[in-house]
Amino acid sequence: MIEFKNLSLTYPNGTKGLKNINIKINEGEFVVIVGLSGAGKSTFIRSINRLVTPTEGELVVDGENILNHNGKSLRELRKKVGMIFQSYNLVKRSTVLKNVISGRLGYTGTLKSIFNMFPKEDMELAYENLKRVNIEEKLYNRADELSGGQQQRVSIARVLTQKPKVILADEPVASLDPPTSHQVMKYLKQINQEDNITTIVNLHFIDMAMEYADRIIGMRAGEVVYDGPASEVTEQTFEEIYGRAIREEDMRGGEENE
Amino acid sequence: MNKPDFVPSSLYPAKTKRTLTLSFIAVLGFYLISSITTESFIINFFLKIGNITELVGRFFPPDWSYITVIYPKLFETIHMAVIATTVAVIISIPFSLLAANNITTNKWLYNVMRFILNIIRTIPDIVLAVVFVALFGIGAFSGIIALIVFAIGILVKLMSEIIEAIDMSPSEAIKASGGNTIQTIWYAVVPQILPQFISFSLYVFEINIRASVVLGLVGAGGIGQLINQRINFLDYQAVSTTVLVIFAVVVVIDWISGKLREGLV
Ligand SMILES: Nc1ncnc2c1ncn2[C@@H]1O[C@H](COP(=O)(O)OP(=O)(O)OP(=O)(O)O)[C@@H](O)[C@H]1O
Ligand SMILES: [Mg+2]
Question: Quick one: average pLDDT of A40-66?
């Protein structure tokens, strides 16, 4: 469980990224965060694995307030909270397998990892996860030989190899075309259901949010302005969150082209 | 057709022409003053051409029997370059990371590293050699130390610039999955810089071979020491043998290392 208690974040330059957030996210939920550019979606998500540090309030993950974590305790937190990025963030010159096994680094000693000495179970886990996203035949390809959708699947395999309790995804489909976007979202949804991993995804496409989310959180100017089950959300709700009429660019569309 | 009221007489405006003329006179004046104060006129080269041809004649034919003396010193030069390059490469790794502002986010530490690096880089290799010969005495050891310091200056500068240009997003991913700093560098930074790093190391090896010849002239070991000695004995035929051997070795090593580097990047 993740709980935001009166949580605020002010960036060093004075920008308020988050303003007094109170939210509880339950285990196994699939939450989509929506909001216009600059609303604070990334700040919200990146607080949970402390890529940014909130300045006031409490943030409880798995029973611990994470705001004072550093060094070892911070790495322990990050082992539990995996992350997927808009630009995949793979090491392009390394093989697919090496990228995926790097999800185990948090569990591996420094010296062992320098000599690539991963236990057999870890190699097996990495390969199984590649199979889960159907990319196992690219095992020894260099990451930059893969298409965007394939790279994002590799990054999903990497995050799975980390065996997280929570997966954070910051705009995971923003660089992909519509069919590939749906494919990636389907993998995320499937993993969420099969492994009961709490999943929090930033999206700015309202049709995708409605299709994949259990729950939608709407943000505007650092505040949570909507929180409710996806089944109750209508286009009207989005117009309220965005504070403007829905436009074509707010829709990903394209599922039927699959 | 009426006559045009203006025909440009030059391709450049009068102002540009004036500036050019003035600069030309200034440069010419500078040459004159420099030559007078240093008492070295280019014309001397032509006046003394007779001496030169006479001296050059004394270098021929090369004394091939001298080769047996050259070999051990030649290997000493190569050994010096190999040891110095290896040590310099190892020492450069941490310092390159410390001198890259995307890895070393502590401004203070970064600026101190840059400052030290810039100081090292202003000292010419030959000065380093003179200093270390004074400290450790004549011989290869002083030369090796001088080469190490010299090579570190070059390598850290080149490498830190490569590191500053890498894609930081994989580092963020490794950090976000619970990897520690060393693991992040090893998995996300090293693969991006390794080819250039090897290439630069070979390049520094080439430079070290040539530098170690020069260092010998001030007593820092290697084949350069022979040249110095033979010139003092006016044994010019042995000098020309040595120079030819050095030339051949430098060409071969540059060629091999050039081929290796081509395959890398
Ligand atoms: N490192 C930073 N320093 C200062 N201000 C920042 C920083 N990162 C984000 N901000 C500001 O905080 C606010 C929230 O940014 P955030 O990146 O969380 O928005 P977002 O909803 O993810 O937007 P987008 O859809 O464009 O990714 C913005 O006003 C942004 O300019
Ligand atoms: Mg964002």
Answer: 95
